[in-house]
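Hi F.,

I've been meaning to write this up properly since the lab meeting, where we talked about keeping a consistent format for the predictions we share between groups. The idea is simple: the sequence comes first, exactly as it goes in, then the structure tokens exactly as they come out, then a line or two of notes. No screenshots and no reformatting. I'm using this chain as the first example so we have something concrete to point to.
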Amino acid sequence: MRITPVFRPILTILTLATALLFGSLAFAQKESQTRIVIDGSTTVGPVAKSFADYFMSHNPDANVTVSESGSGNGAKSLINGTCDIATMSRFMKPSEFEGAVQNGIFPVCHVVALDGLAVVVHESNPVSNLTVEQIRNIYLGNIKNWQEVGGPNVPIVVISRDTNSGTYETFEGRVMKGEKMAGGVEYVGSNGAARQRAAGTPAAIAYVGLAFLEGVKPLAVNGILPETQTVLSGRYPIARPLFLFTNGYPEMGTPLYNFVTIHLTEKGQEIIESIEFVPVTNY
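Output, unedited:
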């Protein structure tokens, strides 16, 4: 078809506009494919950060950001569509699933590692073993002095994670059995803060994930220490899986799929072991 001169400038403008439009869409699509936003658990944070470093080192165009606002906030971020992966140290609650579905989000969980919730004290504390019942009574305020469980004659400084934490909810379910903690319990916002309080306070007791044992003394619980084999076998009484949640199962071959399956590779297992968590694979 012959194009008259008067229409040539219009056609040129339309062609350029179309090219710019599709070029912008292609750029936006590329950006969305290479940018992964992660939010949630401070326990799973070290795994997410290590995976992010590994992933970006092998994918120069990738941009992975990791925030640690707590498991509950990670769930909220996924529900609200503000993150691609919610890291959680507990399973999603039915109310969170309901809110997600109402927002058109369909959460799928990926068990990235296993963890033992270690009950920790200052390295100078001579106590080496407590029962679940003794730990519960310390947090209920029924046991107030270390002398009552074979330690020195000093009041116990009781440290807990904040109530928005998946670590708190695991401890509440496995140890507290739904009973409310005593009024004098001190709440902190992260595993790192709990470890710091226990490491710097001779009379303190706290609970943290296995990746946070440096500088503190883990206690045996019911005579069983929180170690790889005791967690893997289920013998350690305060063990749990750690999760990545995505909106649906990622399309195979996409950057998101490649990220959430790192833990199934030999390198992923190596990373998880280096952080002191327990891998779900065994190469």
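Notes:
The first helix runs from residue 8 to 34.
Confidence is low (pLDDT under 50) at residues 1-32.

If this format works for you, I'll send the rest the same way.

G.
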